[in-house]
Amino acid sequence: MPTRSSSSRRRYRVGRSKAGLGLFALKPIKKGEFIVYYTGRIITNAEADQLWTRYLFELNSRWTVDGSSRRNIARYINHSCRPNAETDVKKHKIIITAIRNIQPGDEITYNYGRAYFNAFIKPTGCKCEACRKKRLEARRDARRAAARKSDLRHAA
Question: Are 83 and 129 in contact (CB under 8 A)?
Fold first, then answer.
């Protein structure tokens, strides 16, 4: 009888995404199902302000989790304006659960929140799928408007 490899038990993988590295589902994940814990050292917010890392998750007004360790697989979950997962803090643990069904091959994403978005994402532009589609539609509409304007000039 063949033995199962460890990869057959894995529920997700780290892979290349539009925003860098991302976490992708290997098996279906149902709405409300636990995905992963966001783990790391618990440090004070004052210590967190001194660090040059983006893998910080604020628990409350006093404590932050430094998730920069590569053992923290949840650090690969990217931001999305239309996420398929959410975070919840319970007793200094950060739990990530699905807010809708996630199919194999889908990237797992959650909304990082307004403060993080404004500080790190907004200056360079959001790279989530929803925002990419919005930008493509806006560019398409602008090209069509310019073409119509050009056609009107040539017709006159």
Answer: no
CA 31/CA 101 separation, integer angstroms: 5
Q: Please report whether residue 148 resides in a domain.
A: no
Q: Which helix (H) or strand (E) holds 56?
A: strand 56-58
pTM across the whole model:
0.79
Structure tokens at 42: 């618990």
Closest C-alpha among 34, 47, 30 to residue 90? 34
Give the domain extent around 25: 6-124
Which residues lie closer than 8 Å to 84 by C-beta, 6 or more apart? 98, 99, 100, 102, 106, 108, 109, 110
Region 135-140: mean pLDDT is 83
What's the number of domains the chain is made of? 1
- According to DSSP, residue 103 is labeled -
* 84 phi/psi in degrees, rounded to 5: -115, 5
Report the relative pairing of strands 56-58 and 85-90 from DSSP bridges.
Answer: unpaired
CATH code of residue 53: 2.170.270.10
Is the pLDDT reported for residue 1 higher than 50? no
Structure tokens at 7: 């990869």
